[in-house]
């Protein structure tokens, strides 16, 4: 047991004894309070209260926590100097080896990967074009995308100086591809939102000999996705390094065709006068996300799924018997891990889903959940052992208080 945890436990138990002994708290609350006492002193010193992240791998909630392998790699990498381009190339070669890609590189988050993928397809390694970005006059500067796939993150592509051409049908897709088309963009999680399916999207790109990119930022698990999308025919694919991989939040992975990865690298830091110069990834982030990826491919992913479902089942059990309250464990489209949906009769309980979320965020420790029209949703992927107990206790308190009027 790490010394910090031992010290925290001693401090907490002394406080409990001073307050009247262990009998002052029933066992589950004792354990929950003990866990809460361990949260984030480094942030509290700044006046920022930490939270339990039951909302998922969201950037505003700092994505995830580093796996031990990533923390150790980051610390060791921070102690030495190394030629950055050599390190980028070596790390990319190792990622390609792990995933079966032709080539790969580490980026400043998935957004950085989107930007560099677009720049790669626009410039194709031409140094004069690279220096001119985001001025794309006279270049191929259109990106064809299904309208249902437009998301705020496509700003990263638009920062390169391209224009999006939106399509809604296969016929529109064929008609939209022309001499100015630099890239076709597919957002993996959005496939179910529109009529254009990946097979016809990829085929259209291949017929026109235009690179096709898949934004798969949050598409882990399953681990098979690391190679699946490239096998399907996408030329470039990106993943976040700070979500399911549990590497640094400011890291991502771009993989795919060797010529396009080389072009992306020329648009990237540390090359001066490039659009990617501001999207710096340091030696510490490179080694940490590589270590996280190596750990991820070796994980027992079936055990992860079992643990996540146990966490959610325990939370669901904590609210059993509360009037009008029901629960469902499910896997949302585009997510490879289970969620718990809790719903109740808002009118009868006098408690909206938004108000419940605010109460959870107003307690100690703070708990973040997702608020949807059908209820509140709890994502399992970021939960640590014991946090399910805390969430269950707090939810039970909030809902039973509302039910009591």
Structure write-up:
The protein is α/β, with parallel strands linked by helices and 405 residues long. Helices cover 44% and strands 15% of the residues. The strands form 3 sheets. Strands 2-8-7-6-5-3-4 form a 7-stranded mixed beta sheet, sandwiched between helices. It is globular and about 70 Å long. Mean pLDDT is 91; it is low at 1-27.
Low-confidence residue ranges = 1-27
Strand order within the widest beta sheet: 2-8-7-6-5-3-4
Q: What is the strand tally?
A: 13
Please tally the helical runs, counting DSSP H or I stretches of 4 or more residues: 17
Q: How far do the termini sit from each other? A: 44 Å
Query: What is the average per-residue confidence, as pLDDT, rounded to a whole number?
Result: 91
Which of globular, elongated, flat, extended, rod-shaped describes the shape?
Answer: globular
Please provide the ordered H/E string of secondary-structure elements: HHHEHHEHHEHEHEHEHEEHHHEEHHEEEH
Structural class based on helices, strands and sheet pairing: alpha/beta
Give the proportion of residues in helices: 40-55%
Radius of gyration: 24 Å
β-strand amount: 5-15%
Q: How would a crystallographer describe the biggest sheet?
A: 7 strands, mixed
């Amino acid at each position: 047991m790490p010394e910090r945890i031992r010290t925290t436990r001693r401090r907490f138990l002394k406080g409990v004894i001073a307050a009247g002994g262990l009998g002052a708290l029933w066992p589950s609350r004792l354990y929950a309070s003990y866990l809460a006492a361990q949260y984030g002193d480094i942030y509290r010193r700044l006046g920022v209260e930490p939270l339990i992240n039951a909302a998922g791998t969201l950037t505003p909630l700092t994505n995830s926590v580093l796996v031990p392998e990533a923390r150790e790699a980051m610390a060791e990498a921070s102690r030495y100097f190394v030629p950055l381009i050599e390190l980028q190339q070596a790390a990319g070669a190792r990622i390609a080896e792990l995933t079966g890609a032709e080539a790969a590189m580490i980026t400043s988050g998935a957004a950085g990967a989107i930007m560099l993928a677009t720049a790669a397809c626009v410039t194709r390694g031409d140094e004069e074009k690279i220096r001119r970005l985001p001025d794309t006059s006279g270049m191929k500067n259109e990106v064809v995308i299904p309208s249902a796939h437009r998301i705020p993150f496509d700003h990263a592509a638009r920062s390169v100086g391209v224009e999006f051409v939106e399509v809604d049908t296969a016929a529109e897709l064929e008609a939209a591809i022309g001499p100015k088309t630099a890239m076709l963009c597919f957002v993996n999680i959005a496939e179910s939102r529109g009529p254009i399916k990946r097979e016809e999207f990829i085929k259209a790109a291949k017929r026109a000999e235009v690179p096709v990119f898949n934004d798969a930022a949050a598409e882990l698990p399953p681990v098979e996705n690391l190679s699946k999308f490239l096998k399907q025919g996408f030329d470039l694919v990106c993943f976040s390094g700070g979500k399911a991989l549990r590497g640094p939040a400011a890291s991502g992975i771009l993989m795919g065709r060797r010529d396009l990865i080389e072009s992306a690298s020329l648009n990237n830091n540390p090359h001066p006068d490039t659009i990617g110069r501001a999207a710096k990834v340091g030696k510490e982030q490179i080694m940490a996300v590589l270590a996280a990826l190596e750990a991820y491919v070796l994980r027992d992913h079936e055990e992860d799924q079992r643990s996540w479902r146990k966490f959610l089942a325990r939370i669901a059990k904590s609210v059993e018997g509360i009037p009008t309250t029901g629960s469902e464990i499910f896997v949302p489209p585009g997510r490879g891990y289970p969620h718990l949906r809790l719903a109740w009769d808002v009118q009868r309980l006098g408690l909206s889903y938004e108000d419940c979320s605010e109460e959870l965020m107003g307690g100690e420790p703070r708990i973040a959940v997702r608020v949807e029209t059908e209820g509140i949703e709890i994502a399992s992927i970021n939960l640590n052992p014991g946090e399910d107990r805390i969430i269950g206790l707090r939810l039970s308190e909030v809902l039973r208080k509302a039910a009591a009027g």
